[in-house]
Design brief:
- This protein is α+β, with helices and mostly antiparallel strands.
- It folds into two domains: 118 residues, BirA Bifunctional Protein, domain 2 (2-Layer Sandwich), CATH 3.30.930; 42 residues.
- Helix content is 28%, strand content 36%.
- It has four helices and nine strands.
- The strands form two sheets. The chain has a five-stranded antiparallel beta sheet with strand order 8-7-6-5-9, with no helix packed on it. Strands 1-2-3-4 form a four-stranded antiparallel beta sheet, covered by helices on one side.
- Helix 1 packs across helix 3.
- The longest helix has 21 residues.
- The chain is globular and about 45 Å long.
- The chain starts with a helix and ends with a strand.
Amino acid sequence: MVALAVQRTVQGLLPAGMEAQIKWPNDILVQRKKIAGILIENQLEGNTIRASIIGIGLNVNQVDFPPEIAAKATSLKRQTDTHQDTGSILNTMLGHLEAGYLALKRGDNDTLDHAYLAAMWGYQETVEATLDGACQPLYIVGVDGSGKLAVQHNGRLRLLDLKEAAFTI
């Protein structure tokens, strides 16, 4: 839900024909470059999420990046050639977050799941990833109910945890 809110916010600001995509589990890409990252810490009570702390980093008006990430990072200003109003972006994102939260409260998980997959980088595609110490092709099938990435690998379904695979973007 959070990734969708950020993706939709970015998508709404991009020129026609340019696409914001969710790179599982916590990045937003534009033209294969990272424009945003999301960190979520959940406080659990048994199997129930009692509270969540969400951090969202979105590159808005930055045009210069450190050399070590310059080739892999971008910003809204770089993509649109326009200075962006951060207050307006925040209001838009909060609106998308609220809509997603209300969808979760209604139990509208199927709609959220379909929207997530539709915006997901590499979904139903073969992508290159470092897995088990080697660069390998993985076919991305989706995300399971616990948030693990489902891939076809060597003829079988495999569920990947965070940091288990590093994707070549």
